């Protein structure tokens, strides 16, 4: 469930604090809800990082205050430019891409936290800069389903939805029949397809 994983990544795993700065890498179904979680947690600056311009446009309606296209220039420098040269307090990687996770780490300020929520290819390696590593005091954290506990967190999310603070209806990109399911799978790999949300199969 992308909505619980993304929400949990920000609220439970990263423990985003009011007034903090947050970068979210990978603005798909999980990333957009990490942005919602950061907004609900009171982050002052929420930076969406993705390759797709169409995703970056839409995600502003879910709470992103700034966007960075990771295909344009130096993403780490862009994050530092948006945070007074320091980097973000919290970075959340939802891509499953080790290069993106490394960039998220480098874009996190000293004492900050980088949370990896995406599933890596087990044959890949995560490479981090070793210079000054012992001085930065940063935390790199893996998270399984956003560290969410259903009995504790589902009622909270449901109430946030009922109160109009958590957008669920807007996450439905389209409703299709079972005969169209392959088209929905194909859209995940389409470089121009909007994937901020999920397709619902109606029986």
From TrEMBL:
Annotated source species: Fodinisporobacter ferrooxydans
Keyword Cell wall biogenesis/degradation among UniProt keywords: no
Protein name in the entry: Zinc-binding dehydrogenase
Pfam family, one: ADH_zinc_N
Origin superkingdom: Bacteria
Gene3D superfamilies per UniProt: NAD(P)-binding Rossmann-like Domain
Keywords recorded for this protein, A-Z: Metal-binding, NAD, Zinc
Domain Alcohol dehydrogenase-like C-terminal: residue ranges: 29-154
PROSITE patterns the UniProt entry points to: D_2_HYDROXYACID_DH_1 (PS00065)
